Amino acid sequence: MSQTQALMDQETRYGAHNYLPLPVVLSKGEGIWVYDVEGNRYLDFLSCYSAVNHGHRHPKIVEALTEQLGRLTLTSRAFYNDQLGPFLEELADYTHMDMILPMNTGAEAVETAVKAVRRWGYRVKGIPAEQAEIIVCNDNFHGRTVTVISFSSEQAYRADFGPYTPGFTIIPYGDSKALEDAITDRTCAFLVEPIQGEAGVMVPPDGYLKDVRRICTERNVLLALDEVQTGFGRTGKRFCHWHDEIEPDVLVMGKALGGGVYPVSAIAAKREILGLFEPGSHGSTFGGNPLGAAVARRAIKVIEDEGLAERADELGRYFTERLLGMGSPYVDHVRGKGLLIGLVLKNDAGSARPFAEALMKRGLLCKETHENVLRFAPPLVIEKKDLDWALEHIEAVLTGPAPTRGK
Ligand SMILES: *Cc1c(COP(=O)(O)O)cnc(C)c1O
Questions:
Q1: What are the DSSP calls for 256-312, one per residue?
Q2: What is the pLDDT of residues 162-190, one digit of tens each?
Q3: Is-catalytic flag, 226?
Q4: 189 - beta bridge partners?
Q5: pLDDT (tens digit per residue) in 295-308
Q6: Domains of the chain (ranges plus CATH)?
Q7: Ligand 1 centre from 190 Cα, in Å?
Q8: Contact 292, 262 (CB under 8 A)
Q9: Is the pTM of this model over 0.85?
Q10: Distance between CA atoms of residues 256 and 260, nearest Å
Q11: Active site residue 255
Q12: How many helices (DSSP H) and strands (DSSP E) are in the chain?
């Protein structure tokens, strides 16, 4: 049996089957490239759902990680550490917010945001105890904890995991009138993704976020943006909401904040909101640890020093134009911003999975989302010549005979 098959069988035998990976076993990564156990090279066009915006093992980030490994890694928040203060100040500056609460994963940051806006609802807005409501969108993705799936509209994420956490209202995405109608005296916040990545790279209509901002301000409701996937340059701006020139009240971050090497998440908010936490009200053993703080500080610096947001903007436009120019019989339309691009297949083209498998055979790793969408999201350090290489293979698959599904 091949080493690949043996490792896949081992994962399948001992691991819960909560994923369906493409049949490739990776053992090394460098920049935009990953290598499998047989030495084949692939261009990573998924970037771990935007957690690897910096590319694999970015030398500056590995340097920050190893330097910090040689000094101090974990302390708990029972003590101060010399990396956390600088990290919090730098991230507050970077987000134009007053305060930060650091956690580890995206879902934990979303949970933290839920706690923060509920607290504000009770202590500042004066919502009666236990009555706070948060409005969210249909087809949202905010993570996998029980509270977070409680306000998911996706059956696959929810089935047989109840009872669910109450206090959430789901409205259609991209519909500001629906938001206006859903707000009540008990609404503390509207939680929304500026682009819905997991839903298949859904881009809301122009002006949506501006309208949402205005409505939230008029109705005394907090606007919480989940930029776990869209943040840190991915969509061609530092944060996706910068395209709309608005300011959220709460900003949820994760994924690329960890520089592709270590889980770091956080929420940023105004003092009026994050100031409502007192000692003992929230916490995390690993949140704010010096290793994560050192990595995140460097991750932010690399995005700025290397102009990764500007690269995403420029290369995203180029890539989208080339995709549209292919005249593929399978493609319905292309949507997205920067280097977060969804290629939507026509109904009669079938599932996107065989297309992802065909691209894999040609050395390009990407993944279908929601059956008929291929998400293209390479590391932001990619160069135009490598995009051209990828485009050659994408064109061959999208204009060739219809790929068939592997076993
Ligand atoms: C990935 C993601 C999350 C959850 O992050 P985890 O680190 O997997 O918990 C939350 N929100 C959005 C928009 C995401 O893309």
A1: GGGTTTS--EEEEE-HHHHTT--TTSS--SSTT-HHHHHHHHHHHHHHHHTTHHHHH
A2: 999 999 999 999 999 999 999 999 999 99
A3: yes
A4: 134, 222
A5: 999 999 999 999 99
A6: 3-58+307-399 (3.90.1150.10), 59-305 (3.40.640.10)
A7: 17
A8: yes
A9: yes
A10: 6
A11: yes
A12: 14, 15
